[in-house]
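Just wondering, can you check both lines?
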Amino acid sequence: MSPLGKWLLAPKGSPPPRLNAANKTYLILIWKHGQFLERRHLRRFTSTKFSPWDQCSVRNCMLSYDEKDLHQADAVVFHLHFTRSPSELPARSRTDQRWIFLTDESPFHTFLHDHQRLSSYDGLFNWSMSYRMDSDVPVPYGRTIRGNFSTEHYWNAVVRASKTKLVAIMGSNCGGRNGRWSYVRALKSSLRGNLDVLGRCLDGNRTVCPGHFDRDCAALGAYKFYLSLENSNCREYLTEKVFWNAYRKFAVPIIMGASRQDCRRLLPPRSYLHTDDFADAKALAGYLGYLDRDDVRYLGYHEWRDRYQVINEHGYFGSVSKHYCRICEALHYNPTKPKVYARLERFWSKERDCAPASA
């Protein structure tokens, strides 16, 4: 893990790593897709444009979308999801320039444009930028920090007053390599009216939560549990489904995606359920009914809130995005020693880092 990654998971109040150089200003170039990415990372799906350095531990960085700045830039960010081929990358003229590959998707969905091989990009990039904490520039959808937050009376009151329904799932992508919607269908057969599907999948309710990512869904605040089922089961792949739709709404996430081991390492203890802990959907439904009848045991899944804090940093629903701040911090804190990803699949691999697709 990079110095930046270690600091992001350190207890509240931990000092940042030592600066590489004092009084140096860094230029960060977003290659080709800066204007598109601005909607999420600078505007947070609102009409307001926020500073990328707002509440950032360092601020002496400049952001550019202008390809004319290529030779002056200290770092160049390439969004792999939208890149059609290595031919879209420019000729390189500086060996001290950090070329960064960015992906917010799981390894199954690295490329929007199919029929590409990750190996075609071998030897091109110096830094990785993804939701994984072992990236050179970690940009997780959310993160957990330890501390004494003393919020018991607040969360206890919120949970007791607001939780009138059992479990929900919201979705617009009705696919998934892990069979998640088949799991929802099986769970629905047991829970019936106690499971609400919001969105267009499985004939769900399309009106209660309009808007995808740009508008918050206040209705989720009524549910005790949220089905945080990702589109693929990959290493550390925990998205806004966990951090916003569940934790932010004072709900307990039911996770399918990252492994139980990853969840134990990255999430507050006893704050979630994992589908792998149950023999099948029927067994999970039985346990949800048990917790629904026992307020004390259910509230036990919220006790972590006194000792941990979950921070949303994905840019959806008006939440803050820290992507560009993290690049600036990495330039300040990470080692300056030259580095190159000679074989990208040693770091980012759907075969090694993800479970195979369900039948």
Remarks:
- The chain has ten helices and 13 strands.
- Residues 3-140+314-346 form one domain.
